[in-house]
Design brief:
single chain; 203 residues; alpha+beta; nine-stranded mixed β-sheet; 9 strands; 35% helix; 34% strand
């Protein structure tokens, strides 16, 4: 009985030692941007296993990815979706604009138009969209409603033809914003048109 008890204590001690060793062996995992951003390293994180990083998010300023300081008002949120060895591979989860950048656009004798709606991309992602519009003068509520309706219609049509990442790249390049602005300025002069938030919410 004593021998069995001692063996049990020894085994427990070994297991405890092994667990303590394992706890000390956290490794660095490199977080990589998707291929559309040249698989650039976004940073590193510590984990026991690289698989433990799946689901983690990292926010990154687009100017650091592109080297273009004019795009520093754009933030991208990446989400880790799979791993290989000591690398964590991400996909873009969210596009957004700095609030301070938008506030600078607001002026007196102008109308600020906000909206929020959902669209679906060609690859099946449900996305929350929040446009931000500044007119060159004060406009009636009926005109504001017409602008919101036009923006939503055009955005839905645009996203139906694009994957989520294609839509994000077009937002970064301002091709979607230019196309929509050219249409809504037929309703009233537009000072600024931005998409302040574009976030994947459901597959």
């Amino acid at each position: 009985f004593i021998k069995i008890f001692l063996r049990f204590r020894i085994n427990m001690a070994k297991q405890a030692t092994q667990l303590s060793v394992k706890k000390k062996k956290k490794n660095w995992v490199s977080i990589l941007a998707p291929k559309e951003f040249r698989n650039m390293e976004l940073g590193k994180t510590l984990a026991f296993e690289s698989e433990n990083t799946i689901g983690r998010e990292i926010e990154y300023n687009y100017s650091l990815l592109s080297g273009d300081p004019k795009k520093q008002h754009i933030e991208l949120v990446f989400k880790i979706e799979k791993t290989r060895e000591s690398f964590a591979e991400t996909s873009v989860y969210e596009y957004k604009i700095w609030q301070a950048y938008l506030k600078r656009m607001v002026r007196k004798a102008r109308t600020k138009i906000d909206d929020s709606f959902e669209v679906k991309t060609n690859d099946g992602f449900k996305v929350k969209v929040k446009p931000f519009i500044i007119t060159r003068g004060v406009v009636h509520r009926s005109v504001q409603s017409d602008i919101r309706k036009k923006v939503m219609e055009m955005f839905i049509q645009s996203c139906e033809k694009k994957t989520f990442i294609q839509a994000v790249l077009d937002l970064i390049n301002y091709s979607i914003q230019k196309e929509i602005k050219n249409e809504i300025k037929k309703l009233t002069p537009i000072a600024s048109f931005e998409i302040r938030w574009f976030k994947r919410i459901k597959a």
